[in-house]
Amino acid sequence: MAKKTDTSSKKNQSPKIENRKARFNFHIDDTYEAGIALKGTEVKSIRAGKASLNESFAYMKNGEIWLRNMYIKPYEFGSFYNHDERRDRKLLLKRKEIREIDRYMNQKGYTLVPLKLYFKGGYAKILLGLARGKKQYDKREDIREKDMKRELDRKIKGSYKVNL
After folding, report:
1. Entry pTM
2. Distance between CA 161 and CA 44 in Å, rounded?
3. Residue 61: what pLDDT?
4. By three-state DSSP, how is residue 162 classified?
5. 109: helix, coil or strand?
6. Closest CA relative to residue 88, chosen from 66, 103, 107, 73
């Protein structure tokens, strides 16, 4: 008897849109999970995986946190209900978290960077990182460590093939 594959779990998987350059360009000190206020066509585009966090950032305005420059492709079946691709979107955080973020952002060199966009319990969530910019030598050091780890993994993998 053949096994039945569970296709429903694959269908319900939501896309995870990541900003991989953020971890390369910044030291992430703390992370916050925030809700994001979206329109209906934006949600449909994100579920289809048609969004990008590159070049986006969060800022504080009138005691609220806003996300600027996040790209969400217009929904192809949206007609006149479609949204502006790069409009400012309000982030939903608790008041205590907003005060804490404000305290850090007023310090020199801290910024709020979006790291990941995903769905949790049917709601769109965004993972924000409280970050400080990296210097050029820090970036070179990260690349060097990554290369050394990759080379070590290759050597370990190669030694297992010889012994087997």
Report:
1. 0.74
2. 47
3. 92
4. helix
5. coil
6. 66
Query: Phi/psi of residue 133, each to 5°?
Result: -65, 145
What's the confidence (pLDDT) of residue 66?
94
The torsion angles phi and psi of 5, rounded to 5 degrees, stand at -90, 145
- Following CA atoms 60, 35, 42, 40 in sequence, which dihedral angle do they give, to the nearest 10 degrees? -120
Sign of torsion over alpha carbons 43, 44, 47, 50:
negative
- pLDDT of 9 above 70: no
Whether 131 and 111 have beta carbons less than 8 Å apart is answered as yes
Contact 19, 69 (CB under 8 A): no
C-alpha Rg value of the chain to the nearest Å: 20
pLDDT, one tens digit per residue, over 54-92 is 889 899 999 999 999 998 888 887 777 777 788 899 999
Token output for 21: 């350059």
For the stretch 96-107, pLDDT in tens is: 999 999 998 888
CB 66 within 8 A of CB 89: yes
